[in-house]
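Sequence only, no structure available. Ideas?
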Amino acid sequence: MRVQIEFVPADDRERIAVPLNYNTAVQGLIYSLIRPTLPQVHDVGYSNGGRKMRLFVFSRLLGRAHEVRNGCIIFRTPVSIKVASPDENFIEALAEGLLHAPVIDIAGVKLVFHGLSVQAPANFPDKSARFVAISPVTVYSTLFTPDGRKKTYYYHPSENEFAQQVQVNLRRKATLLGLPPEVSESITLKSVRVRSNDQKVLYFKGTVIKGWLGQYTLEGDPRMLQVALDCGIGAKNSQGFGMLEPI
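Reply:
I predicted one. Tokens follow.
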């Protein structure tokens, strides 16, 4: 289930300045809104073979970006954000939290909830669809240097490991959601159009994370394509990475 949430400034300004690295603030806002109803999403998430998954994803802030100045993005208002989850209870808890929040704070910017729209379910008649990433897709491995130090290597969409890890991750999500192996094993990903300026480098709680926007094709059972839409692809979805939009 996918929704778009719109905000306007609490003081009726026409522009707002949001720090470039706002993902931490948006994630914290989402957790604060759902916590009264679904505290377990933050505390334990959903379990798959010992791995914890949060099973939600959100986009970058959407709006008319005017300029970047002093480490902030200047938006003309209103601004909005898209949130998706396969758990309808999650979306309902989010909506209820918004209705009871007089003022929303995103990285020190005071906003007011202005509206929520539910996106129509996607239709995948051909078991294949092209998507655009509306938040960067991140895929990585933790390696060790010769002296034993840990090093995070972020894969480029042109590397085979990028698609392989996306596919494995989607299969884990599908298993957690109860889809049978013959469905979950069907998924494949191809990078279609990724340019150098699609790379985004962000800081999340002091950690550097690299991800890629761009266009991707997914092929497989339509239920797997829906998993990709509702959960996001790649890693760190609940931190605002890997949300897709059908083209």
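The chain has two domains: 2-118, 128-246.
Hope that gets you unstuck.
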